[in-house]
Amino acid sequence: MKPTLGPFLVGIGSLLWATDAIVRVPAIAKSDPAFLVFVEHLIGVLALIPILLFKSGTRLFQLGGLKNWLGCAFVGAGGSAIALLLFTEAFQYLNPTLNILLQKTQPVAVVLIAQWVLGETPSRNFFKWASVVVFACVVLNIFETPMPNFSPSPSPAKGVLFSLGASFIWAVSTVTGKRLLHQVDPLIATFWRFVFGLATLCVILHFGSGFSKLNTLFDPSIRLTYLYLGLFPGVLAMWTYYSGMKHTTAATTTIVELIFPVGAILLNYHFLDTVLTPLQIVFTLVLLLSVTQISLIHGDEYGTGSGATSTEPRS
Question: Is residue 187 part of a domain?
Answer without folding.
Answer: yes
